[in-house]
């Protein structure tokens, strides 16, 4: 596979020189606003959202290859990122359509891939709630939606990162019942969106198991859904079906749980290409900002936040470069 010049340049900007995507994520909107409001016990303003995102970006991007932000509250933060860090911008509205079945997505009204590129995006990111077990009618809508986005990113010669998050209606997606179904949901989603028709350049995927239910894991929750051998098999199978580079998302889990998953992937020879890690690095600072203010939150980030992102970076030593998959020589890829 070969990348067009714009896509190659964009991927280089969000990666390390060796072709690893070690990116931080700060595009949370609705969920972040609710969490901050709950801790503060009052309203969270636009200024609060911009300040929170700016502080995370300023303190953490010296330790990241890129930052993922949203164009609604994240553009002021984008100007405060470290010079080494590329910029991904989210294109979807926060949340999903709750009026009908299927958690259907929508795009931001006043944005396009062209406009995101014009304000400095090196890559476009889209979030899609997806399960291969939904009805054909629902998934046809989602498949066509992703195809349109792939074409839009091709037309503007900008990398397309597709993030898909699995679900099952009426089931606790953090519980053991869903954990048993999660591997197939992740594997089949990776298989589907690796197809060239979608135009995806990088798959942003969930870890294919819930580490809390893996036998003998450090974060074991007391119930076992998979043996270590089965968990390893699911990691490997997911990697094998992907024909595009893929990176892991932290999906709101703790830093300890996410880094254990990364080490587990490495130990089992999984060729993942990096991470886009958000809440695992900064979510424990939410009450600090809400109750103590910006200065206290900055200090927390400089200590705990940096420790968290460096723990993730240490776990990325086993990640593999996307250069080989796209036929890029390291001399050409170096920024």
Brief digest:
With 335 residues, this protein is of the alpha/beta class. Helices cover 44% and strands 12% of the residues. It is built from 13 helices and eight strands.
Labels describing this entry:
TIM Barrel, single chain, 335 residues, alpha/beta, 8-stranded parallel β-barrel, globular, 12% strand
Description:
- The structure is a single chain.
- It is built from 13 helices and eight strands.
- By secondary structure, it is α/β, with parallel strands linked by helices.
- The protein has a single domain, classed as Aldolase class I (TIM Barrel), CATH 3.20.20.
- Helix 8 links the parallel strand 6 and strand 7.
- The longest helix is centred in the C-terminal third of the chain and has 22 residues.
- The radius of gyration is 19 Å and the shape is globular.
- The protein starts with a helix and ends with a helix.
- The C terminus is likely disordered.
CATH architecture: Alpha-Beta Barrel
The CATH superfamily title: Aldolase class I
Strand tally is 8
What does the overall shape look like?
A: globular
Q: How are helices and strands ordered from N to C?
A: HEHHEHEHEHEHEHEHEHHHH
Q: What strand order characterises the main sheet?
A: 1-2-3-4-5-6-7-8
Distance between the first and last residues' Cα: 21 Å
Q: Based on helices, strands and strand pairing, what is the structural class? A: alpha/beta
Strand composition percent: 5-15%
CATH fold-level assignment: TIM Barrel
Q: What helical percentage do the residues reach?
A: 40-55%
Largest sheet: 8 strands, parallel, barrel
């Amino acid at each position: 596979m070969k990348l067009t010049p714009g896509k190659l340049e964009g991927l280089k900007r969000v990666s390390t020189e060796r072709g690893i995507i070690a990116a931080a994520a700060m595009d949370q909107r609705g969920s972040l606003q609710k969490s901050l409001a709950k801790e503060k016990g009052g309203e969270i303003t636009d200024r609060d959202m911009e300040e929170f995102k700016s502080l995370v970006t300023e303190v953490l991007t010296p330790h990241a290859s890129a930052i993922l932000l949203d164009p609604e509250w994240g553009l002021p933060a984008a100007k405060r990122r470290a010079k080494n860090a590329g910029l991904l911008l989210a294109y979807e509205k926060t949340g999903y359509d709750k009026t009908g079945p299927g958690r259907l997505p929508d795009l931001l009204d006043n944005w396009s891939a062209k406009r995101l590129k014009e304000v400095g995006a090196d890559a476009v990111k889209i979030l899609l709630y997806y399960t291969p077990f939904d009805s054909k009618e629902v998934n046809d809508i989602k498949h066509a939606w992703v195809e349109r986005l792939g074409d839009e990113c091709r037309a503007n010669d900008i990398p397309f990162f597709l993030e898909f998050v699995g679900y099952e209606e009426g089931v606790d997606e953090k519980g053991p019942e869903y954990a048993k179904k999660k591997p197939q949901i992740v594997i089949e989603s990776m298989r589907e969106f690796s197809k060239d028709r979608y135009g995806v350049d990088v798959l942003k995927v969930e870890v294919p198991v819930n580490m809390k239910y893996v036998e003998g894991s450090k974060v074991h929750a007391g119930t076992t859904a998979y043996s270590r051998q089965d968990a390893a098999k699911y990691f490997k199978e997911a990697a094998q079906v992907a024909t595009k580079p893929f990176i892991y998302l932290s999906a709101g889990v703790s830093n300890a749980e996410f880094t254990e998953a990364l080490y587990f992937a490495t130990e089992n020879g999984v060729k993942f290409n990096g991470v886009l890690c958000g809440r695992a690095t900064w979510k424990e600072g939410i009450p600090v900002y809400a109750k103590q203010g910006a200065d206290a939150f900055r200090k927390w980030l400089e200590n705990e936040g940096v420790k968290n992102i460096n723990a993730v970076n240490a776990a990325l030593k086993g990640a593999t470069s996307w250069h080989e998959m796209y036929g890029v020589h390291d001399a050409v890829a170096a920024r």
